[in-house]
Amino acid sequence: MDRIFLLPGEFHATKKPCEISTVLGSCVSICLHNSGSGLAAMNHYVFPESSNPDETDRGRYGSTAIDLVIRSLLAVDPIVGHYTAQIYGGATPLRTEAATGVSSGIGERNVAIAEKLLAERGIKVTARKTGGPRGYRIHFDTSTAQVRVEEILGASERAATIKKKRILIVDDSPTVCKVLQTVIASTNEFEVCGVANDAYQARDMLVSLEPDLMTLDIIMPKMDGISFLKKVMQFKPMPVLICSTIAKEGSAIFNDAKAAGASDILDKDTLQLYQGTDKVLSVLKPKLMSALARFSPNRASI
Asked: Which strand ranges, in their side-by-side order, compose the sheet holding 135-141?
């Protein structure tokens, strides 16, 4: 079965059985299903509505995203009674309240607009899991209309159960991956939870593994590291250490990586990979610590 992962502002409609997944905080996803034809769709929107009447990014706002996904299905089967809906998300993550001192209420308003527009369309809501202090990781099986929901532990909860910081390595070089794994495994502070060779593998691992930190190369197949970094910072901000030979300090790429949200940047040449693991450790470990220390979770939220 194919697996589809949605970023904020995206939706996927299909008649082919697949699993559609996403990660939600205050955002909301609506899962629509037509049991007769097998049609199904899921979206992921960020805000209840836009204050800009000329807004073109319609998928990010519930007021337009919900209509967009419903119309995509009704274009195939126009009988509204054939569809059911499920609503997920709309949490108020504790980190958001801690950072601001108040609840923004975005999660509640995202849920409210889903309930309102589905009722206006006459589509029955058969299941919902919304609100609360934790985010959700959801997986929608379009062949059965079943949704598997996993609650995401907050940073303080993870800290109570995990001693070592978990690192996802993203690099298309087997040699680099092997060296980094070996060196990181030798530390008391870190452990490798996964290795991805491109951005698409990394995207799935971010959802399934929930790493605390990611090392990220820039030159990779399918999608370059800076483009992927921008997407990560949009839907799931986290500490990221860019590890690349082309991100020399002061270069345009160095500045682009910082602007995209990199917590720190490591010139891979300084690791001197063929000079032994002690040399790599002496350079890599301080950079990993720096990336964690410099990351600010207040820069964005899911």
From this structure: 2-5, 18-24, 135-141, 146-152
